[in-house]
Amino acid sequence: MNNAFENAMTQLDQAANIMNLNKDIYAVLKQSDRVLIVSIPVKMDSGEVKVFTGYRSQYNNAMGPYKGGIRYHWNVSIDEVKALSFWMMIKCATVNIPMGGGKGGIIVNPKELSIGELERLSRGYIQKIWREIGSDKDVPAPDVYTTPQIMGWMRDEYEKLVGHSDPGVITGKAIPNGGSEGRETATAQGGVYVVKELAKKLGLNPSETKVAVQGMGNVGGFMAKILHEEGYDIVAISDSKGGIYSENLDLNAVFAHKEATGSVQNLEGTKNVTNEELLELPVDILVPAALENQIHKDNVDKILAKAIVEMANGPVTPEADEILKQKNVPVVPDVLANAGGVTVSCFEWEQNNKNEHWTEAEVFAKLEPMMVQAFNEVWETKEKYNVAMRVAAFVKAIERVAAKMKI
Ligand code: GLU
Q: What keywords tag this UniProt record (predicted)?
């Protein structure tokens, strides 16, 4: 398994070489500003106390308060959290929002906890990190397996501890709790704006563009739905248990089947595929929207897609990236493709700070030009230096961060 932080540092090195990055700035960017490691004792329903480990990495705040989600997953590690916080720094700077990079996580399988245990764990995490967060300091949000309800418990716990209201301390909240319209679908919607720009560059016509989506969570599920509404041809989709493939996939039937059986597989008229096989299907655009390290040196030669749009964080390893670049397969990197989520988080924070509430139409009217501009800046930088889009995004982002750091 690739070490996520090493991957992130390899990507930093590639960009630093291309742009001749000042060595002092480079030295600072090789480290996270601060990493908190906390133990969270939770009284389980059985009466027994279990101690969970949590992290929060505050990578860099040159552009604004640290920003990034909190992940609940059994594979969370300090290296993964650090890598994800570094990518958040790059992501926020790629779309040019006034936010730095942060990320948190707890080593836990949330599916094994009762609702009460989950609440106590979430409040316990805030009890350990509250001094280091705040709307002007570090603003967490949801990530893998964390929800608006969890954000609500965390906001409440934080406000009890500081003794005053601070709705912008956390984003991805439910709408009645200060959440933004459109936040739920923002990551997917941002990805769709990116796909549309990419299709223009590649001369692809939506109705003739076959798309495979790996993942059916908040990102993959909405992405498939919105792309379908935009006229794209979704031919394969999967959840954590596996996927299905059909040249005539009926997406509504897929969602109904998943709702009824808990899985997408075994739907009449479709072929079951594993999550690995889904990546190797003959499609135009492949959208990995689940977890990291999905496309690596051992399967990259089997990838038939004409382009990849990374909606998960870190789904393509650096070795695979290199090979895809040689094969002229554009990879729209996570830091650009899935930046719609954090951009609308930033809008949520802005609305909270100004005590405003924008309509969904207002939110997407602001999001679209930002995604389109970021895509085109990255595309131009890629052409200028003849590098992969990821390197181009890193160059653009690090230029912005470095300019702030210098001042
Ligand atoms: N977890 C999301 C990401 O990786 C969103 C972060 C946020 O909204 O702050 O981009």
A: NAD, Nucleotide-binding, Oxidoreductase
- Over its C-alpha atoms, the chain yields an Rg (Å, rounded) of 20
Structure tokens at 145: 């397996």
Q: pLDDT at residue 402 above 90?
A: yes
Q: Is 187 annotated as a binding residue?
A: yes
Other C-beta atoms lying within 10 Å of the C-beta of residue 405: 16
345 annotated binding-site participant: yes
200 is catalytic: no
Please give the C-alpha separations between residue 189 and each of 193, 276, 317, 371, in angstroms, as whole numbers: 6, 25, 25, 10
Stretch (H or E) spanning 150:
helix 148-162
Question: Which of 66, 82, 87, 143 gets mutated to test ligand 1 (max ligand atoms within 8 A of its CB)?
Answer: 143
DSSP structural state of residue 199: H
- Structural domains of the chain in order of their starting residue, each with its CATH number: 4-12+30-168 (3.40.50.10860), 184-337 (3.40.50.720)
The answer to whether the CB of 339 falls within 8 A of the CB of 161 is: no
Cβ–Cβ under 8 Å, residues 256 and 278: no
pTM as predicted: 0.95
* CA 230/CA 248 separation, integer angstroms: 16
Nearest CA to ligand 1 atom 7: 342
Calculate how far, in angstroms, residue 133's C-alpha sits from the geometric centre of ligand 1. 16
Residue 30, annotated ligand binder? no
Using the structure block, give the residue that is written with the tokens 């601060």: 34
Closest CA to 95 of 105, 87, 84: 87
Sign of the alpha-carbon dihedral angle for 162, 166, 172, 174: positive
**Nearest Cα residue to atom 9 of ligand 1:** 68
- Averaged pLDDT of the chain: 96
Residue 14's nearest CA partner among 28, 26, 31 is 26
* Crossing angle for the helix pair 78-94 and 339-354, to the nearest 10 degrees: 70
Q: What is the mean pLDDT of residues 154-167?
A: 98
61: exposed, middle or buried (Cβ count in 10 Å: 0-12, 13-18, 19+): buried
Give the confidence band of 2 by pLDDT, cuts at 50, 70, 90.
low
Asked if residues 304 and 282 have their Cβ atoms less than 8 Å apart, the reply is yes
Please tell me the distance from the alpha carbon of residue 289 to that of residue 333, in angstroms, as a whole number: 12
Q: Taking the mean position of all CA atoms in its chain, how far away is CA 261?
A: 27
